[in-house]
DNA sequence: GATGAAAAATCCGCATA
DNA sequence: TATGCGGATTTTTCATC
């Protein structure tokens, strides 16, 4: 992966806030021509620096009212077992984010669902019926203070 | 906020994966004309259903290698104290996500930084020098299994 | 909600440093 | 290798039905 220069970083900073900013406007902001901006964006997309271009949707608007953090502890931590858990979490549409972490727990999972009833059903399917889950702790979000993938740099 | 219909939801589902999909292609996919698609998108943006349009950047590419979960417990939970903590977290560029949660802890915070040294500096500034933080627990991500704001609906 | 024309943005070749 | 310019193509936008 090529090293990013200051132009690239300046472009990314704009795109992370609004990727519908025109190349012309970006060019003005960073002192580059529009085609140059577009070539850089294209290159960063090809290299995976820009992973995706997405609309951020208000979860409440689509009926998903609850954001829930779950700490997962496994019984067995062999690579195969870990992979199996990863895979099941990856495939669950309720799972919005999932990280394998160091420390007292094994996974941190962010689940977004319509209601507690749906969450309870989710835990039953994913955790209680999975012999490899030692325990899990649930933290329900009451207030979203900040929710971004905007990286401050 | 107006209720969303099936067309709106179908459009959102596409936009959450790739908001550069042309209105024409979206129209084909959902059986609507391009201008219709565009009016719906415009309306949902105005209503806040679509919160933003952003590029998702690979943190590693911009030198941010570490994703860290932090559980925060406060000493005092008066509304003023909670607000003060919220505000300081909101303004910290290292904080990518932050939720006020129920349960044994008060806040779940997702921090993204270059290195452990930077994180330690962050904890000193934000937690140790803040008299209202009773304790915090750190979970460092070793592997990002899933990282999306793509809501499965 | 659909159609079609105008406006705007993106994309591409070419010349250049 | 990367930039800027100009024009072709595509996409968005807007008026009308």
TrEMBL record, chains A, B:
Classification via PANTHER family: LEUCINE-RESPONSIVE REGULATORY PROTEIN (PTHR30154), TRANSCRIPTIONAL REGULATOR AZLB (PTHR30154:SF34)
SUPFAM superfamilies: Dimeric alpha+beta barrel (SSF54909), Winged helix' DNA-binding domain (SSF46785)
Keyword Transit peptide (UniProt): no
Residue ranges occupied by any HTH asnC-type domain in the UniProt entry: 4-65
Database matches in Pfam families: AsnC_trans_reg (PF01037), HTH_AsnC-type (PF13404)
SMART domains: HTH_ASNC
Presence of keyword RNA-binding: no
Keywords: DNA-binding, Transcription, Transcription regulation
Annotated organism of origin: Ruegeria atlantica
Name of this chain's protein: AsnC family transcriptional regulator
